[in-house]
Model the fold of this input.
Amino acid sequence: MALDPTHLQLAIFLLIGIALPIVALSLGRVLRPHNPTPDKAITYESGVDPKGDSWVQFNVRYYLFALLFVIFDVEAVFLYPWAVSYDVLRSDVGLFILVEMLIFIFFLVLGLAYAWKKKVLEWE
Amino acid sequence: MNPWLVLGPVILLLIVLGFVTYAIFFERKVLGWIQGRIGPNRVGPWGLLQTVADVLKLLLKEDVTPKKADLALFKLAPALAFIPAFAILAVIPFTDTIQFADFAVGLLYYLALSSVTIIAILVGGWSSNNKYALLGGMRSAAQMISYEIPLVMSVVGIIMTVGSLNLNEIVEAQKEVWFIFPQAIGFVVFLIASISELNRTPFDLPEAESELVAGYHVEYSGFRFAFFMLTEYVYMFAMASLTTVLYLGGWNAPFGLTFIPPIVWFVLKFGFIVFFLIWLRGTFPRIRVDQLMQFAWKVLLPLALLNILVTALLKEVPFLGKFY
Done:
């Protein structure tokens, strides 16, 4: 399979993006001092000795936002191809294509309204 | 193989690094002027070498790693944040000739890849094993995913108008009218959401110095810290370019002033957006965290969805329909 120059270019950008941190950090390793002491390795907590671990349970609210995000991001996945072919489909089936998407969006907005009502979107 | 496939990106990387150096300097100068100060003026003529000195200093600083941190992830996070920031620049058409990958789904590529940085910030915050960093990282991720939705939805109007995800075709479609006018609602939503994606004032909660010390990068020092800062400013470059391409007509000249070369127009529009971002930082207070999350879901998302409906309906209106 012949490699499309466009895809090749994207890959080169990715490789250069990977190369810069490697080169810069390796160069830094030669230049910077390395003198670790136990005091330096303590987790910073405004000068107070930290108690316990930081890998603890956190607020469930973050999880709810993540869930909402997934729902609407998947909606976007459906919206993009629809938007690209909107004009083509409109000349084909008329405004039915809009109505179809409105029904889809309506159900998602219903979900958003439910979250709104349940005060999931509030942050205290 | 065409050597420009490699040389081009390397030159762009150097330009971007130069931009970052002077964007930071310019930001500090402008903020200084806004606040009635002089700003950096000691290193080099007019302080022009201030950021260069700062970068060199960071390069020579010890790389302190906390004992309790998850070392592998801790070291990976800054690189993981930077890689997509640079990779997305491939699809941006700067002018009709200066562009790298004329990718059919360029806009999607940009939006999809840029959200990888959210993971990097989360990884950085979590692997530090620091309470401030964890809170900063979680907040950052919550904010960025919340504003990702309106950002993604606000451009649907443009896609419907152009019928393509190719950024070149989107610019070509703006020969007559820039999308900032027919897509006014979308533009406002996009602009606000993009500022939030950039973690810039008034949405810079992840880095609220007064609440979280510094946010997800508390434990980072030296060049790893520099990579997080670099990522932020590379995204500023990318987002200002994308805003120019999507809403300000890209390299197209306004009022038929085509004797001025396209690259000048691009740089002018791009420069205005960058200045605008700094201007906002100088004049707006930081918003509260509860306002921040509500604003994305209760205001911006409904507006972005409304924009889709309005675009679809205006397509049906005679005379106006030709703009959509």
